[in-house]
Amino acid sequence: MTLAGIELRYLVNQISDATQDYYVSNIYGVTKDSILFKLHHTEKPDLFMMLSTSGVWLTTVKIDQMEPNRLLKRLRSDLLRLKIKKIEQIASERIAYFTFAGFDKEYVIVAEFFGEGNILLCNNEMKILALQHSIDVRHRKLGVGLVYTPPPLNGLDVIKVTENDFEELKTSDLAAAKWLGRTLGLPKKYVEGIFEMSNVDSKCIGTNLTAEQIKKLYDTTKNIVTNVVTGKHEPVIIRDEKTEIIPVRLGNLDNKCTVVNSFIEGLDTVFTENIVEVGKSIQAGGSDKKIKELETQLSEQEKAIDTVKEKSSHITNTANSLFEMISKGITSIEDIRAQEILSAHNAKLIKEKGITLILIDDEKIKINTQSSLQSIASILFNEAKRKSAAIKSIEQIKINTQKKLSKIQNKAETEKDSVSFTEIRKKNWYERYRWFFTSDGILAIGGRDAPSNSAVVRKHLEKNDKIFHGDIFGSPFFILKNADNPPTASLNEVAHATVCFSRAWREGMYGVSAFWVNPEQVKKSAPSGQFLPKGSFTIEGQRNFVKISTLKLAVGIIPQGDDYVLTSGPPDTIKKNSICYVIIEPHGLEMVDAAKKIRLEFLKLEEEITKKINIDDFVRVLPAGASQITEIGLGDAA
What we know:
Strand order of the largest sheet: 20-21-23-22-24-27
Distance between the termini: 44 Å
Oligomer: single chain
Helix content: 25-40%
């Protein structure tokens, strides 16, 4: 399935609105034709945008990489941390521009969704820096170092088409459907739907159409285009010879249709299925080739067995015919009557280099014509037995080939099953920050950096909360939610987390204290004449200090509804709430290496659940700085 230009216009509008102020936090290669962008916003849930040569869409599925993508390294180098500035479409063509900007840099990804498709990375002057594949044809040339040139525009812009434009149909000697498809660049499914809904014969020549029919065709076209572009959808997935999603009803649909909630949701389903199927072919490609080779060998071996059986049977029949000769009084194989009986059994005597042979089919068997017919028959029977013995050898080879084939087929199925993807879980609002539930079941949230520190206080601090900060420069703010009179254990746990997620962890500073205050003691603006850095606030009045003697955190997988989430916090509460956990202390492995090590340990304990959690999530829950694992175990929720 490929996108129509009008579908792309809707997607461009929707994705532009959804990704406003998002930046690229990671890029994943999926196949050579598909790239997944992880988009982050300081205050909104992460989004995942799949960009493929077949289309662009927001997805709820993360597919593991199935083959190398030649653009991935360059895209990561240039686009990470840049914001999506704008997404636009060229007229109603199947071409989209994605502009990324930040840090005084600007890049444009050009995605072409027609033919074999193409993805190109350009600078702000549209000079090509990298591309999926080069093009050198009559009307344009694409390559690194060249300025990007779109293909010549054909026909009319279907989104802006007018009733006057349809007047040309009156003078066309083409079939009306062919004119509509060529002139407006609409796919076959839309053209057929327009004619069915207009009740006009699609094969009718343009000059034979009435003014009323042309008006019907225009009105139907305009209505469908407007509904697709503006989102007035009734999306359905059609599963026939091929599976596709259409955003609006196009004529009568049979029971092969499945209604979906939205066009983007349906697109995600269909395109993800397509990518996974491509991935299965990629993963099993080598095995599939070997399977074909072995199947060919099996076929040849079966033919060989049949051929040898047939030859053995013919030789046996010829041997038996010699006893027929004896019964008729024939004593010599050279007797003319013997020759006639041999011929009736598709056999004859021949001489090669003075040696007499019996030719049976294409088998030549040496005989002595002076020997008795019984002796010659014995020679033939022995040859038939030798052929039968050969059948057993071939059958054994065939059995070995079948075993090899079965083994390779199982391997191919395993390879296809190795194409893995996970549903991207809809996250709770607090998961964009640091978070955990205390031993008393109270939610605590904390900032990850200056922007999220600011967001935690400005957006989520309420009158019944308690707010925490470390007695050290470089500390996050933590909030204990809805805790008017919180238990001491919860206060101590949040204080502990505040210190551990501060600069103290990175520098191994033990003995740092944290303090908590009430919301009204936090002032969100600096005193007159002073300046507060982003993410900082002024604290007034008495501070309630909690001395933290150790630096220990636990990382654990927590059951949450029907799902599982990864988080980190004070050891006691994580142990209590998790199915498995590790305890970490400062020093040791850098963040990414520590994350890999923790994930590996969790795979040993809870493989199926851990497989669904990617390495980025493990990195995200760790404190800034090196960490070492000091304890591994199953939690109380196991």
